[in-house]
Amino acid sequence: MTLRRTLAVARKEVVQLSRDPRSLALGFLIPPFLLVFFGTAITFDVDDIRLAVWDADRTQTSSRLVDAFVASGYFRVVDRLERYPDTTHSLQSGEALAVLAIPRGFARDLAGGGPAPLQLLVDGSDANTATIAIGYARAIASAYSVRVVLAGREPTPAVVAASRVWYNPSLESRNMVLPGLVAVILSILAALLTALTIAREWERGTMEQLVSTPVTRVEIVAGKLLPYLAIGVLDVLLAVAIGRALFDVPFRGSLALLIAMTIVFLLAALGFGMFLSAALKSQVLATQFAMVATYLPALLLSGFIFAIGNMPRVLQLATYLFPARYYVTITKAVFLKGVGLEILWRQGLPLTGLAALAIAATVVAFRKEVE
Amino acid sequence: MAEADLGVHPSEPVIDADELTRRFGDFVAVDGLSFAVRSGEIFGFLGPNGAGKTTAIRMLIGLLEPSSGSARVAGHDVRREPDAVKRSIGYMSQLFSLYSDLTVRENLELFAGLYDLPADRREDRIRWALGTAGLEGRGDQLTATLPLGLKQRLALGSAVLHEPPVLFLDEPTSGVDPVARRTFWDLISDLAAAGTTVLVTTHYMEEAEHCHRLALMNRGRLVALDAPSALEASLHSPILEIRTNDPTRAAALLAGIEGIEDATMVGRSVHAMVADEPTARVRIAEVLEREGIDLRSVDRVRPTLEDVFVSVVRRSGGVVEG
């Protein structure tokens, strides 16, 4: 392997990239765009829940309860229902996500010291939001009960749980979405970028000339990886800047560590795309495979949206195959926790293995023989 | 070119193929090909498409593994030392395969890098290649915008940037106009005169005349091998050129009659290879008159390579596949 030949391939690749608007857009425009777009759009926070109220009690107590819901900031009253059967319509049409039904005699029961039942009807078609809404409603109702019971006295609860949230104290989902998003976007893009490289040369016939020279397979693969590696690192630096400037996402860890880990991750992801390109020798096929093999796994199996710990065992094992899984953990950890290699070697090590595997597979699959 | 570059003793062949064979499944693309090319020789593979010329070249330069047989190029075994072979050769593939989205100079710089040219030789060689290709002052032009003739010369320039002792050219002039073709062959002659051994494939008969020796190939087999003039002289039967108003029908009719070994269309006339000239002239006139074809002239002509080719293929019992 000579440096001169490797750099000759890399330089050629850079010149070709610089004249190819599609690859340029894919490398430099799409990532920041997706980051800003999805960074704004994706939120796992549940607030502003649309609430319809059927208040059959019509007392000061009942309206105070409704006020408590509104005052919490999580609910917004969108409708006041006259008749109980209207609740069905409210939920079916989607006007309301939840209906609070206060039966006649609520104030009286409460004053009498007995249990005063309430009904909360929740649209369960979005289970996640429904669960959260129910949690909020329970908390509001119990806080209200406590106030009623203790009216006028100092509360002296038996057990006090003082919870404190680390790393993302305001529990803003944006803070966890953005670092993960960087990883997801880069996963998809990396494979797409390199899926074209080797196949394009076979399709255009330039490969035949290339492989008739003394250049080796390793030199071709290395020369082709280098420019994309640079693009990937630039994208991550851009993402850190965007995260801080536009989204106020903290960056607590070491930038050098993030870059080092990014390079290892990129070698795995870029290497996978290049493997497809070398093995399939067709730009269309390689691109489609790259999409299928990176898009959904990066989104669903990386721990970005669904916690890996909650997945069925088989899926949990499958996640170990995807570089995105490790990189999502790495970006979140470096951005939010500021941890170093003493923790992240657990991600770095398997990622290095995957990178070595992808590159070795590319070199093996890349037959210099012409057919 | 220094002798040390050859990798072989001057008396030994620079290219030496021994029973080279390549199968693709049941199809035998190249079948037991054996030949030797001397230093400084322009050696031609002549044959129709599908004759196995490209497959043979690809085996000789290490792009394709032979199914059996062996070959040495510049002293290196193509199977065991493909990397050494690649350092000793220049290659121009059938289709233009430089990078269209690079400029002329960028292409040359790329190949200078791939051939590991030392920095002090690089600039000289690139300037030489630009001159040879007739592209002085056009180094910054995008390769895609060059006319095909210039592209081919640039490809040749790139292929010999490292001054290889052996040059392989696979149909280098296909699709190029006759003037550009002649310029191209002048370049090849110059390279050979300077000591480069050239193996070139073609299906243009008139190009084959430029070669010192010719290997005629048909259906994967070598059917004749000699100097172009010797091949033409080897044809003992006289060739009659027959001009009529309907050469297609005339060729079909004449191919079947007694005393005519073969009749094929060459351009707008029919070339007939005959056993005995006076008898044949009478028979030809009779048959054409009976069929109402207007006979304009019958002349004895010097056999062309095409005649040789057709005759050799027929004698070897094969069919020319076009």
The CATH superfamily of the largest domain in chain B is identified as P-loop containing nucleotide triphosphate hydrolases
How are the strands ordered across the major sheet of chain B?
6-7-8-3-9-10
- Helix fraction of chain B, binned, reads 25-40%
Give the strand content of chain B: 25-35%
Question: Oligomeric form of this entry?
Answer: heterodimer
Q: What distance lies between the first and last C-alpha atoms of chain B, to the nearest angstrom? A: 38 Å
Radius of gyration of chain B, CA atoms, in whole angstroms: 22 Å
Span of the ends, CA to CA of chain A = 25 Å
Q: Tell the overall outline of chain A.
A: elongated
* Number of self-contained structural domains of chain B: 2
The CATH topology name of the largest domain in chain B reads Rossmann fold
Strand elements of chain A, count = 4
Q: Structural class of the secondary elements of chain B?
A: alpha/beta
Q: What is the name of the CATH class of the largest domain in chain B?
A: Alpha Beta
Q: Helix content range of the residues of chain A, please?
A: 55-70%
Report the sheet-strand fraction of chain A.
Answer: 5-15%
Low-confidence stretches of chain A: none
Overall 3D geometry of chain B?
globular
Overall mean confidence score, pLDDT of chain B? 88
Number of helices of chain B: 11
Query: Overall pLDDT of chain A, averaged?
Result: 88
Per-chain topology:
The complex is a heterodimer of chains A (371) and B (322).
Chain A: H1 3-18, H2 21-41, E1 49-55, H3 60-71, E2 75-80, H4 86-93, E3 98-102, H5 106-111, E4 119-122, H6 127-149, H7 173-195, H8 197-204, H9 206-211, H10 217-247, H11 255-280, H12 283-300, H13 313-319, H14 323-337, H15 341-365
Parallel strand pairs in A: 1-2, 1-3
Antiparallel strand pairs in A: 3-4
Chain B: E1 15-24, E2 27-37, E3 42-46, H1 53-60, E4 68-73, E5 76-77, H2 82-88, E6 89-92, H3 104-114, H4 119-132, H5 148-159, E7 166-170, H6 178-193, E8 197-202, H7 205-208, E9 213-218, E10 221-226, H8 228-233, E11 239-244, H9 247-255, E12 260-266, E13 269-274, H10 277-290, E14 295-301, H11 305-315
Parallel strand pairs in B: 3-8, 3-9, 6-7, 7-8
Antiparallel strand pairs in B: 1-2, 1-4, 4-5, 9-10, 11-13, 11-14, 12-13
Helix pairs in contact in B: 3-4, 3-5, 4-5
